Amino acid sequence: MTTQISAMSEIWLAAHADPVANIHTFQSCMTLSNVYGQTNHQCVIADNGDLSWPPKLKVYNGTSLSYDGNIVETPTAIISFHVDTTEPRIPAIALAAGPYIYVYKNIRPYFKFTVPSLEINQLEQDLWNQAKADKIDVQMLHDMLESVRSDSDAVPLTPLSTKFLQTAPHQRSHFVSVYRENPLKRQTVITALETLKKSHPDDDAISCLIIGTENKDMYILDPEAFTVLVKQSLPSQPVFLRSTGLYDVDYRILVACRNGNVLVMKKGANSPKFCITLNSHPIGIERIGKNIVIATMDKNLLCYNNKIKNLWSIPMPSNITCLASMDFKAKTFKGVLVGMDNNEIRLYRDKFLVDTMTVTDTPAMMQFGKYDREDSTLIVITKSGGLYIFILKRNVDLSAGQASASVGPSPKQFQKLNVPRKTKTFVDQTLREREHGVAMHRQFQHDLYRLRLTTARNFAEALQKKMMPISNSNFAPLKLSANVQGIGPMFRLTIEVMNTSTNHPIMGAYVVLVTNDTLYVLEKSYISLPLLVPSLTYTVNTMVRCTSDQGITDSINVFVYIKGKCSPVLTAIIDMPASESMIVV
Amino acid sequence: MALVEKQLDPLFLARSYLRRRKFDSCVEICSKMLEKNPYDQCAWFMKAKALTEQVYVDEVEADTDGIAEMLMDDNSIAQVARPGTSFKKPGTSGQGTSTSQGIRPMSQSGRPVSGFVRPSTQSGRPGTMEQAIKTPRTAHTARPVTSASGRFVRLGTASMLSEPDGPFINPSQLNLAKYADRPGLNKVLFDYLFYHENDIKNSLELAALATQSSKYEDWWWKQQLGKCYYRLGLYRDAEKQFQSALKQQPTVDNYLYLAKVFVKLDQPLAALDLFEKGMEVFPGEVSLIIGSARVHEGLGDLDSSVKFYKKVFQYDASSVEAIACIGTHNFYSDMPEIALRSFRRLLQMGVVNTELYNNIGLCCFYAQQYDMSLTCFERAINLANKENVADVWYNIGHIAVGLGDSNLAYQAFQMALISDNNHAEAYNNLAVLEMRKGKVEQARAYFLSAITINQELYEAHYNLAILSEGQGDLNTSFKEVRKSLEAFAEHVDSKNLLAQLRQYFTLL
Q1: Burial (CB count within 10 angstroms: exposed 0-12, middle 13-18, buried 19+), residue A559
Q2: The dihedral sign for the CA sequence A354, A358, A359, A362
Q3: How many interface pairs between A and B have CB atoms less than 8 angstroms apart?
Q4: What is the ipTM of this complex?
Q5: Where are the domains of chain B?
Q6: CATH class of domain segment(s) B422-508
Q7: Rg, C-alpha atoms of chain A
Q8: What is the pLDDT of residues A190-249, one digit of tens each?
Q9: What is the pLDDT of residue B474?
Q10: A158 to chain B nearest CA, in Å?
């Protein structure tokens, strides 16, 4: 299997490749965890599914798929954390889908948490109550809800009301009679998930869940009781959350928002601190030691320190598709992995490129961590759904690249430009120019006047005969192009007419074809054109049959007329190609 | 004079006519002799020879790619050839080509323009069926269905028309086996069948029989077999025959035929090797050197091509093709004064046509010899015919742009379009003029026409991208600039525009 991978890397060993694993999901929907509580770790993936199969929860163990179960809704994130202190230590898996968090233990459903539902518009509630009591009719309900919806300051409508407003008029009364008993509910959707250690920094200590929602809220949940510990509203929708510290002591939460802002939330703060405004949308955000590394959609990798000062930014050669942190504890190496759509995965330590690996397809998501019994494994899932597993070589030297940062001007400055030398002839000619400058100038001016005259004469003649393929006249600015397709004896003559004016449609245009009757038989010699709307190309065509097999050719004249004018607006003369004789097969 | 001719022996007179290439008179006399004595072998020989010579086209040069050959090409080995090993991907040769598209314009098929028009230089292989059947507007470049029909059939039928009392030799009634054994007659009969009757099947049979009767020792017959196979499209068989003939007797045309087979099989490197070998055997053979230069040009390796053309000069200082190609190369290498010398030499050699005057005019203008430039263009226009007048007008338009006379430029580009409705470059330049006048919609329409006519024209794509960007239509701009880079990957302005557009798109 390993031969299929074109990983030209010094530091990675290709361990497993499954190009047809068929996994389609996002960066946040993969986690590495010992879900069965054993020593070996598994890879848990929440698969988005496709039109043909539902969303699935997949667990990879070693090189095989050990669990494959359906889930109800499209997942948005998955994360592994400890909820209790029982032995053996088995972590739970939190899967966010829609407004719910499904918690699994041992890959069995354990608990379901629902994000607190949102406030409901009081007026809307009253309206439905009245509808329930048959105090208002359906039309009234519709009109009132419509007015609530158009009020931009009001609390938004529930999905039920929105659905009602969308239904066709004749189905509304039926809709109300069916659904009016349902309680009104407005729910949001989870957008991001993160964990935060509660009181101990150990690997297997209990963690709180942090949830970001579409409604611009962030919640911190108690891991044992699943109650909301902290609720914080944000200025925009959170898309990535990263946390450090302990909930009970002190913590910071980095929130990357959909509008390109990055916020920091500290313990005890009333509101998040607004800190970074990105030039572009974030693709990923990682905390590497004390620094924050952000990948953005304008192909940049940015680094900020704890004080939110921009340390460096590196432009990437291609669009970034995913970002993952790499914490290699054995060598205390902390780096960041960047996947790009030119199929490269680059490893950076600070701003120094350590390694570049090329995979067969665009990496869509990746994660570095413990998998199976190997401590440092990289799992890459490609855009086409392939699963690739790489193992970090044991004796790897990750210090490369640190010293190679070049200084001084770029070597391109010293390249010589390929400018041809001036030849001897050229020098001789300049001598002549110097001596006879005045005469040459006079001659040139004389010739130029003649040329202008010749051109103007030809042009005037062409204008008079309307031989132009383009007309600039004010009443009919048209463009004509014609071409002949075919090899004979049947040809297809395609005529394209375009109105080049900005806003005047042209009516009553027609095409007339004239040719030598003895040589060509035209299917149509008069084609009327529809109303010509500006900037659209109108194509008409006709068949032409060549009656001669002697290889004689002639031309076809195409005229475009406007009704009521006796002279054509445009003319094109098409020289017909020589016809092939009939081939009897 | 006529009296003297009457007194001469008719056979002698016929021979004399044949030698003086007065074929009609020769055929007339031979026909009379054959009426008297149908078994007169001498007269029969001469009549066959004369008729052949009338329609003779050098087989080495005659080559047309038909639609069938191009679209249903089952001979090429790799569909996606490595760079520099195929004619299908011009401009990808391994060596750094000095001329970029920005300097040397491309023909419609995306190949750098050559200084010399010859079969299959202008027409690349079309990508789609539609491109293949879309006949260019002018008759002289119409593509035949297959090379087996097309022009060759027309030659055959033309000769039939000229003979009111039926064909001279009826191939279907010939006893080919009998003729194959007669060394005196079989070669002329073959030539007659091959060139005059264009009856490849019978020619092949005759050649096969004659090869047998010569106990496979006559290289001439092997060469003829190869020619027949080539015409029938059996290139691998043709290759075998030519190889065998070459082993027996290296001749120049054997090398040329074999190279032609390699070119047909899209193996330019094999062809180059062969030319190299041929030049060792026949040092100073101009046709071999020119062949090599052509293959290099086909691969887009213009530096090597020019090297070979220069070598031609050592042996043949009046080779029109070499002079024209070197002139063109010099012109596009920013040395118009040297190019001017080449073209002037052609003029001195007696080549007088529109293209030449046009080129001299351009060279004069760019070499700052203004007093002669415009006169040459005037002559070019006077000499021009329907097919090439558009290009002359187009170049006048360029000169006018150089002079800053936009009115003259406008008229000249319009004239180019009047003469050739499908002149994509003229549409493009006209559009730029319109754009400068502020007539944006008009300009857009012209750019679109230029693009429809010639997909490879990166300038039109780029200009349309600039126009759309100016109007805020970034989506169109992005699409067009991508197409421009597809046609010309190194275009710096397009790259800059693309980078700018990307920045717009990713910016919040």
Answers
A1: middle
A2: positive
A3: 166
A4: 0.76
A5: 1-55, 422-508
A6: mainly alpha
A7: 37
A8: 999 999 999 888 888 899 999 999 988 999 999 888 899 999 889 899 999 999 999 999
A9: 92
A10: 30
